[in-house]
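re the bet — no i am not wrong, look at it urself. input seq straight from the record:
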Amino acid sequence: MEAAPKNAVQILGNEAWDPKATNYVALFQKIQASGADCVFMAGIYDAGGAQLLKDKVSVLGPNNGKVKAMAPDGFTGFPELLKQPQAEGLYLSFAGLSIDELLSKGGAGGKLVDSYKQKFGAAPSSNYALYGVAATQAILEAIKNSDGTRKGVNDTVFTKGITIPADQSVIGKELKIDAASGDVNAKDITVEVIKAGKETFVKAQSVS
């Protein structure tokens, strides 16, 4: 919220929604009165998100209309969301790159997705699937460079660090875990929009 004014974003309100509520009409009527032109739903889809979207569209109109709607990674990877008519035009953001982007880059990630599609008939349904594989790659590298004990694995990460070369990394770029901080060097934010029942890539940006 502190960065919003620096990016010419005016925040007109900040209010939590009750996941047990039967409807959110009053909440969106309040937003309507504020004159906001975008609603950010900072939560999880299966904690009232379906009803929230229904009432957003009912009161404020479609997401590709006057009042846009955006949600975080707590809304990504839900087949039920993609089937919901009110989800059309909803923007989504999440940390990482989408499967489509990883496929376009080729490399180890693209090869893995191609193999997955050949075996199961479709790409993984969640954009985070390959990040689970990336985590496994990091764990296996830590085990390989340790004495095999839990402590040894932990010490390897936080004394030597972990590096997965770009040509082996499933995220299409070098993955490095800094021993001092535990942070990774590969940091990306992706924005998608739901079109015709699909999460569709809009933009990705690396962050420092």
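see?? The first strand starts at residue 38 and ends at 40. told u. also The mean pLDDT is 89. so pay up
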